[in-house]
Q: What sequence folds into this?
């Protein structure tokens, strides 16, 4: 496994991981109308814009293929809920074929070294992700929001 900072030329590969993990995780949870606009093409355009504007996610490559992405930074307000930690995990996605291989752990440890006080938002109904974060010292803090960009997907805040 190789970890490195993504570049603009990685936009399509990063978008593929992002989109594929959403389809795998939320395909049966989110309504069909969500997927009409939540397309791979739209994710590619979003990642081209983000990477072009200086976003610097870390990617995990296995055999030259991007199989995971993670990004953390300064905490931001979410739906009028103020941050409770200075650092925030913005995203961590790993293709299902690489779950349990250490890719997710390596990505998390790279963007938020062990013991770093941080917060993250995770889908309330994503037990696998919540267990992963709990193993890494995060606990549900109590704040809850509805992601209106994702058909009101409920998210809870976890803190370490």
A:
């Amino acid at each position: 496994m190789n970890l490195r900072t993504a570049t603009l030329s990685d936009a399509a590969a990063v978008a593929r991981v992002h989109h594929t993990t959403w389809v795998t995780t939320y395909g049966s949870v989110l309504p069909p109308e969500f997927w009409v606009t939540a397309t791979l093409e739209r994710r590619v355009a979003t990642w081209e814009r983000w990477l072009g504007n200086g976003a610097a996610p870390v990617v995990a490559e296995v055999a030259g293929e991007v199989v995971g992405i993670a990004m953390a930074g300064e905490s931001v307000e979410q739906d009028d809920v103020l941050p409770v930690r200075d650092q925030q995990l913005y995203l961590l996605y790993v293709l299902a074929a690489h779950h349990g291989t250490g890719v997710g752990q390596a990505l998390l440890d790279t963007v938020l070294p062990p013991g770093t006080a941080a917060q993250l938002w995770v889908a309330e109904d994503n037990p696998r992700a919540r267990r992963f974060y709990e193993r890494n010292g995060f606990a549900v803090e109590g704040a809850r929001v509805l992601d209106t960009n994702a058909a009101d997907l409920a998210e809870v805040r976890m803190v370490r």
Summary: The first strand starts at residue 2 and ends at 5. DSSP finds five helices and seven strands in the chain. Helices lie at 11-26, 32-37, 40-52, 103-111, 127-135. The chain has one domain: 2-114.
